[in-house]
Amino acid sequence: xxxxxxxxxxxxxxxxxxxxxxxxxxxxxxxxxxxxxxxxxxxxxxxxxxxxxxxxxxxxxxxxxxxxxxxxxxxxxxxxxxxxxxxxxxxxxxxxxxxxxxxxxxxxxxxxxxxxxxxxxxxxxxxxxxxxxxxxxxxxxxxxxxxxxxxxxxxxxxxxxxxxxxxxxxxxxxxxxxxxxxxxxxxxxxxxxxxxxxxxxxxxxxxxxxxxxxxxxxxxxxxxxxxxxxxxxxxxxxxxxxxxxxxxxxxxxxxxxxxxxxxxxxxxxxxxxxxxxxxxxxxxxxxxxxxxxxxxxxxxxxxxxxxx
Length: 308
Description:
Layout: H1 4-7, E1 61-65, E2 68-71, H2 72-85, H3 95-118, H4 125-138, H5 142-151, H6 156-178, E3 183-194, H7 197-208, H8 213-220, E4 227-231, H9 239-245, E5 257-259, E6 262-276, H10 279-299, E7 303-305
Antiparallel strand pairs: 1-2, 1-7, 3-4, 3-6, 5-6
Helix pairs in contact: 2-3, 3-6
């Protein structure tokens, strides 16, 4: 049943806080003698009893996202599940960091779910029951599923809230990822990397004077010849290397680049304007697209944290 945690991203309850909006009809005030034709009331009372204001009761919230709450109780329960999922280590799990991680994740999921509704996705009861029934069947039946709920401190109601958000947020996530192109401009490159600056300068000087890049690359990397393969923008760990090579044409090489790994000289071998992405490169582009979407969404949203 551990695989179910992959389905459940967070616990968030969608609470729509509504106030009582009954129309109150005001009856005539006691002692009023105002009749048709009269121009002034007689014997009006000196005190008027105010109509009581009905105030909605709010449950404790861990945060509010665009007016929609994340229940404090749901947050605390999810945090306990987070702690239980962490591998044991010599050092205790940092509670403050963990709470921040859990709450941030809950906010992200709620933002995705809200965006799905805005985009027109409607999770009606028919669709929900179809998804839920399929999930129960996949996990081995109702009895096994109920056991898992108890082991993970879910009630049927709290799980339903989580699963509804999961369906909505997953729909929006998939829509964002589907917009990522599967092919784009890419470069194939190789590098020469050494640890000493003096040696790097010597190698660069030889290259400038006509030395063969491939021969030198194989000399310093007998296993791969410095091959970096094909990659698009926003893929390499070293942004400075990526920026430098995308300014070059095939056959050209960079100046000496000092990075955390040493001193690198990179040559562009091939360049294609619209090459299909590898699966790994596609995942990287999708992660970037989702992160950029989330960053933009948060700047447009009203998020209020209630935790101390």
